[in-house]
Amino acid sequence: MTALSAPGGGSLALSALDGVATVPLALSALSTRYAYATFALLFAIGLYMMIASPNLVKKVIGLNLFQSAIFLFFVSMAYVRGGAVPAIPSEGGAVGAYASPLPQVIVLTAIVVGVSLTAVALALIVRLYTEYGTLNEETIREVMDE
Amino acid sequence: MSNPELALLVAVPILAATLPLLVGLRFDSVGWPIATVAALVEAGLAVFVASRVATEGRYVHSLGNYPRQYGIELVADGFSAAVVLLIAVVTLAVLGYARRGGAREKTYYSAFLLLCGGLMGIGLTGDVFNMFVFLEIVGLATYALVAAGRSGRSALAALKYLLVGTAGASMYLVGIGFAFVATGTLNMAELSRAIPETVGYSDPLVVASFSFVAVGLSVKAAIFPLHTWMPDAYAEAPDTVTAYIAALVSTLGAYALARIIYSVYTPAFFEAVPLAGDALVAFATTSIVAGSVLAVIQSDVKRMLAYSSVAQFGMIVAAFGLGTEQALLGGAIHLVGHGLMKVGLFLGVGVIASAYGVRTVREYANLGYRSPVTVAAMGILLLGLVGIPPSVGFLGKWYIAWGAIEAGAPVVAAVVLFSTLLTLLYVARLLETLYFRPPDDVEGAVPAADVRLRSDGGGDADAGTDDVSADADAGTDDVSADVGAYVDVDDAGMAEINAGTGTRPVSFGMVFVVAAIAVAAVALGFAGPVFEGFLGPFLEAVL
Is B64's CB within 8 Å of A73's CB? Predict the structure, then answer.
């Protein structure tokens, strides 16, 4: 999947990767600090929701939140201030700074994975609901142990 | 650098996974034949890759011929070839069992093949993000297969596994995100070069990245206290699924951890940040003790074996954390050996559940004389799990303990030896029930056989517990002869049992697979030099 991010133009993609590696970390972190803060916040909220909520659907929502936080992290780390869209002009030639395409492709893949996981989770929840008539995990466990 | 067999190993089962559904539109019960053909192709490819690795060492395949900075590499070296061989063998064994003992549904075999393809992918990939994708493919297929138990319990177990497993995989994704920010590459070989060159090992970004990756993959490998999904998933899944995932899914999780530690962060990282290695070893060592103790107190046999896996994976990960040559070799051997022993044990549990409908330790009373071959094979595998020579279990533990002493970690060595005692505790309890407890005392146990069994069957079973080496020397012929005898007895005894309990007939193939795995586990106990020779180049390359 990551292979798609380098359609022929080796030197172009290379300069994008160099951009990620050489922009001083402190500077780039500073300029996009709010994105990273949001990432940490959403990550923690999602994780907490997954653990603390007894409602199975809310657990899955927590999982989605948790994953969205990671997508945000990837997209924001690829961002270059003033950078262009990482598309290769048909006449060729690099055009200054542009956002790294690789993390964006990663996020696309990760979104696909996340959607399939959500589908499987919801299918399981439907099955549990038809069997037990509730979405509360604790109630389901009580019924099971009887 | 085009070696298409590596890509085919991953692609064949994934493409074949669509066939049961497609062909199933026209014909019935096509799942098993398609899966078997795919598994045979996989086995052939795996043997080819292993023999190539044995002669020419590590080689790679670049997908789409992109340079490795942006493309995906598939890498075959000694370690991955060993794991790929294990996957191929276990897939064949489980399918051999599933012909009579498994599910009939087409979707079941689709998920099974998808799982096989994902596992092969984890084993071969040389790209950290690609590994995440394969981890999730394995996860998705496993959740579906666990839920194939059809009961509400299995659905809840699968959902729990899904939540925990996805959280783990997402942690791993965050970890590689940090590594990508630090270095700008996702290729393992590039990362191992770029981490020290660009930011250095002790950079907070690299340390954080390692922590996330280690926690995420520890979830997949079921290291205490991240193991909670495992007992439920193993206990509630259908028997063939339990056998397959117990042998391979966590194994590939631990493999991924080892691969990341040695091919991405390299042992130099542990030298620069000693805390990382120490913490990993400490958690893994706790896992050995906790898993063993929890296994001792279980009454359900599948649950007991699941907790035993927690302990064994603790041992494997501890070995990977120690990072000496012997420890790493031992970890790799135990990884393969444990997978083999667990598939045999869970299939044995499946045979007994099919024949008698019993699942708890108590109900196993006296079964040693009702199903001599299956129980003898399970006995051999259980003793192998303890680490009694000659068995692959002993070989792995021996190298791990040796490596622990070599690494100057006597605590780990002591825990490995102590855990052998704890393992013996639950194994001895099971063996005692199987052979020495009269069934009349236990409610729900299978009543003693009406027909007195042929003496050679019972005698062989005794030999299995008392003297494993004698049994091993007796060799394959003996075992298969007994299998024949067993089936005769079994057919006679089965008709009356089937009537009441809703069990299903045990076929020759099911028993044969369990017996063959036991023989293989003993035979591999003599294969120490083979392992050393095969894994040697890999160990030299990473250490």
Answer: no
